[in-house]
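Worked example

This section walks through a single chain of length 267. The input is the sequence exactly as stored; nothing has been trimmed or padded.
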Amino acid sequence: IARKKILLAEDNEINQRLMKSLFLKKGIEITIVENGELVLKKLKNEHFDIILMDCQMPVMDGYEATKAIRTELHMHTIPIVALTANIMLEHKQKALACGMDDIIGKPFDFDNLLSVLANLLLVGGETNTSTTVETKTEPFNQKKTTTVLVDFKKGLKTTNNIQDLFIELLTVFIKNYHPNIFSAKVSSQHQMSTLLHELKSVSASIGAIALSKRCDHYEQLNKSEHLSEAHYKELKALLQTTNAEIKSYITYHSDDNNRNKPSSQEV
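Given that input, the structure is written out below as tokens.
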């Protein structure tokens, strides 16, 4: 797929940076837009060989955009792959029903993603659900106390073990997801669901397992009832603890890099 043009619809900064860096490392051209409406505009003016479509985006989500691509733009053969943190059967069915060709769970293994794309391009965009890449997420259990706070090895694997890229993503994470985000960005139940879904996905990508699981739990709970002040307090505390561990990791590796650099006398 080295000579293919890929269009990515993704609104999250961390995911954008991750995808852009990984594809560029492989010498693959990728164009990134922030929502489905921009996807349609791009497709009207440029040729692309395959589309990676986040499902939950502002303005126009991935499902709406896919339907429009198939019915309004009459592009029936271009492969469209859903990228989502929700990979339950109902989400797979919804993705395929609107015209997507496959669905990949976040976080994903990049080599597996490339295999899915290569397979879809090889068969000319025909639906092939056997290539679906899944990320298994265990339901949150408050009685479990053995959950790792941040699995840095797992997060590093998401970046194809590129340490500098991983540090970059961690730095953006603690900048964008301060504990006060829950009071600053949330004014409705819908906004809370959106934030929890986003944080669940991006936390899993960097290896923040405990936070991702907690967000998944409260995302489901928030569908049936408003979260209480105690829930907000717990989320803020967990995010604060997670960020503190991430900062320690960044500091350690920054110091490690400085130790490994030759001094001016050595140079």
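What to look for: The chain is about 55% helix and 10% strand.
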